[in-house]
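FW: tagging you since you asked about this chain on Friday. Here's the raw sequence from the shared folder, copied in full. Didn't touch anything.
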Amino acid sequence: MLNYITLSWIFGSILSSTSLILINKYIMDKYHFGCATFLTAYHFFMTFLLLEIMCRLRFFDRVTNMPQLEKWNMGAYGVGAVVFMNFNLKFNSVGFYQLSKLSVIPFIILYNLLFQGEKTSSQTLFSLSILIFGMALFTVNDVQLNLFGSIIAFVGVCCVSVFQTKTGSKQKEFNVNGPALQHATSFPQFILALLAALSLETHGINSIFDHHFQKLEILLIFITGFIAVSVNVCSFGLIGRTSAVAYQV
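HL: got it, structure written out here
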């Protein structure tokens, strides 16, 4: 039964994340929507809203033993991961962005070793090395370096690594499942993402106040909210069932 549940999380994660990426890219290219942080805040809000409804319908139990500071701490890392990786893509070449995404796996392994005391077996390290090297050869091209972009990428990779590691460890620490932990942290993520959006995307050429929304665009944005819920829940569920490294692979 465990294998079937894990496979369900895997397929759900792949399907939902791929769909969300394609629709987000279509919205940004077709309608020149440049407010990715506002879109992220909306996704976290929809995640909180729908999971709150599911919690009240008793699909899962509300997390009561997790301190508020822990929720906001995880929320900060989650929002930091999204915001800094968006800026990573903006200020760096696509090849460097792809390389930084691949570096999340060794960062997670290093974080587990230094802060969690978890060692990764030599067989796993060897397999991951071959995988990362092969993916780098296949996907990474046009790598251009600059100091500011490198710093942004480093912070983004650190946030992703810590957030995904905490996603797994906190489920075990507080004995909760993926949807329950996502519900507990989604409201802090929404507030922090909204504050980031207000500070980053309310002025300049990409100000949300200067964007002219179209009917189909609004509909597509609305739909992405529901898909994002699936992405967030599946990622938490999959990491809880496996590990942050397995999720990245």
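FW: The chain has a mean pLDDT of 86.
HL: agreed, and The longest helix spans residues 2-30.
FW: great, closing this out.
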